[in-house]
Specification:
The protein has 171 residues and is of the alpha/beta class. It contains 4 helices and 7 strands; from the N terminus they run αβαβαββαβββ. A 7-stranded parallel β-sheet has the order 1-2-3-4-5-6-7, with no helix packed on it.
């Protein structure tokens, strides 16, 4: 279900919660906040969830924790902080994660390394720097890494050479 850029309020999201077999939901740019997002807790069959540029915080992770089938998650440009990334390992099936346009920390990146099935990571337009790249080396199954518009220099690229499975990097 693609609701890209449609502003949906609580009653609209409550209606969506009735779609129990929904597998893909795009709410990018839909002006969703934590209260509205709470209505989606019943959607346990979601495999793909796109939430870029909304008003979500760590409170929404409580709703995400029951999404055991979730393989693709886009949370870019929300109010998600690196300290909140400790909740990502609860999403064991996650293969793709986008957290664009935000802050990164060593601890936050270490939490991402616990996502054993993660194959694609998008940290574009984040504040990731050369010294933080070393924490990405623990992502053993990562194939695609996007670091566009970040603060990576030539000196930091050597950290990427240690990532054996990496097949695509965007700088």
């Amino acid at each position: 279900l693609d609701l890209f850029s449609l502003e949906i309020d609580g009653p609209g999201l409550q209606f969506l919660s009735e779609l129990k077999n929904l597998r893909i939901l795009n709410l990018d740019y839909a002006n969703i906040d934590d209260a509205g997002f709470g209505h989606l807790s019943e959607l346990t069959n979601l495999e793909e969830l796109y939430l870029e540029s909304n008003e979500l915080t760590v409170a929404s992770f409580k709703t995400l924790s029951n999404k055991q089938k979730l393989r693709r998650l886009s949370l870019g440009m929300n109010n998600i902080k690196p300290d909140d990334w400790q909740h990502f390992p609860n999403l064991a099936a996650l293969e793709f994660l986008a957290i664009t346009g935000g802050e990164t920390t060593a601890e936050g990146l270490e939490n991402l390394a616990k996502l054993e099935n993660l194959q694609e990571l998008d940290l574009a337009a984040s504040d990731i720097t050369d010294d933080k790249l070393v924490h990405l080396q623990a992502l053993s199954n990562i194939k695609t890494l996007s670091l566009e518009n970040s603060q990576i220099s030539n000196a930091g690229l050597h950290h990427l050479y240690e990532m054996d499975g990496l097949t695509s990097v965007s700088l």
